[in-house]
Amino acid sequence: MLTTGDKAIDFQLDGIDENGNENVFKLEEMLLFGKDVILYFYPKDNTPGCTAEACDFRDNMSRLTSKYTVIGVSKDSVKSHHKFQTDHNLNFVLVSDPDCAVMKKYDVWGLKKMYGKESMGVIRSTFVINQEGVLTHVWRNVKATGHVDKIIEELAKD
pLDDT tens digits for 31-86? Predict the structure, then answer.
C-alpha cells in the first residue's frame, strides 16, 4: 500500500481540464507545471457526497491554485465528467479511470461497506504528490465533507 515518502505511480488517463477541454493527462507531465498535485479519488459524478467534495475543492481553489494542481479521478466517462463539471461549475481537472487500473495501483479500489452491505468500489482517498513525484501526504477512507479544509490545514503546516 502506498504511503508518505513513496514514489507516486504515473498514469495516463483521458479527461477534461478546468475549462472542459478534453485531453490525455499524464501525472509526470502535470508535475512539470511547477506545482504539486492533489490527486483525489471519488466514487461517482453527481452523487450527493461526491458533489459536496467536488464543490468544496471548487470553492477553495483560490487557496490552492498558487501551489497545487487538483485532479479528481473516478470510473465515470469523460462525457459524465463534462456534465458534472458543467452542472457544478468545477474548476479543476477530472480524469476517467473506467477499468480502475490506476485506482488499483493506488490501493483505492476495494471492498466497501455501506448500510451493512459489502461491495467493491472506490475508497475515497487523497494523495499529495510533490514535483519530484513523491507522496507527501496520504489520506484514505475520508469523509466527503470537511476533507478539503483538513487538507488545506495540513498543507499549511509545510
Answer: 999 999 999 999 999 999 999 999 999 999 999 988 999 999 999 999 999 999 99
Chain-centre distance for alpha carbon 33:
17
Q: What is the CA radius of gyration of the chain?
A: 14
Q: Is 50 a catalytic residue?
A: yes
- Domains of the chain and any CATH numbers: 12-156 (3.40.30.10)
Residue 115: beta bridge partners? none
- Identify whether the C-beta of residue 4 lies closer than 8 Å to the C-beta of residue 158: no
Please pick, among 50, 64, 102, 151, the residue that the annotation labels catalytic: 50
- Cell 500500500, located at residue: 1
pTM greater than 0.90 (yes/no): yes
Distance CA 36, CA 134 (A): 10
The β-bridge partners of 74 are 96
98 CA to centre of own chain? 14
Contacts of 157 (CB under 8 A, 6+ apart): none
For residues 36 and 75, what is the distance between their CA atoms, to the nearest angstrom? 23
Residue type, 111: L
